[in-house]
Amino acid sequence: MDSFISWIGGKKSLRNAICERFPLSETEKYVEVFGGAAWVLFHKEKHANLEVYNDINSNLVNLFKCVKYHPNAINEELENTLNAREIYDNCKSLYNCEALTDIQRAAKYFYMIKASFGSKVSNFGAKARDVSNAEYLEAFKARLKKVVIENKSFQSLIKQYDRPNTLFYCDPPYFGTERYYDTGDIPFTKEMHEELAEILRNIRGKVIVSYNNDDYIKKLYHGFNIEEISRQNNLSRNTGQSQYKELLIRNY
Description:
alpha/beta; 11 helices; 7-stranded mixed sheet; 7 strands
């Protein structure tokens, strides 16, 4: 199934290639460290005994939790809501208000994702979109029923779930484009790329990491199984390049 949101860095176009490389028979725990829109989680087979979705963005995590437990309530919050800059600006000014319930906060953040430019949450998109219909969220309630939803740093999460039978999927902010990602109050720095690589070099479990095709990243993960994967470039009209290369990095 598809994700219920679009998201910066979403892996819709790479999900098949990623899932094809999963060592299914050896996996008991599956952990998405940088969950985002969870395109891979929703696409993959439910082969593991435990599935974990994690993101450092507490608003995104709250949205996933409310979709898991209260999808109809989110739909009711958004019912008959117009796609308008004024409403978007109102949501942006209020969605972190402590007086809101978790459901109200989730509905406002969901609206901002749907109405914003490029799903970046930061600016109104000014495009014709249906922002009021969220009835389809009910289908995701069942898929998330047994998924553990976490809101931890990658350091803490990997340490907690690292076992020989754990498969980690890591989709960190792409190197050089970190400013485009909504990581809450904690910006993703160059040092964090280095720390992630060092942690993954020493885990007991297995990991597959998706990254942009960058020489610095290749150097960080020297000794890993590194593949260059080409996908359709969604910005080909502007760049003139029909294909965009990314990296899939594995320790197996």
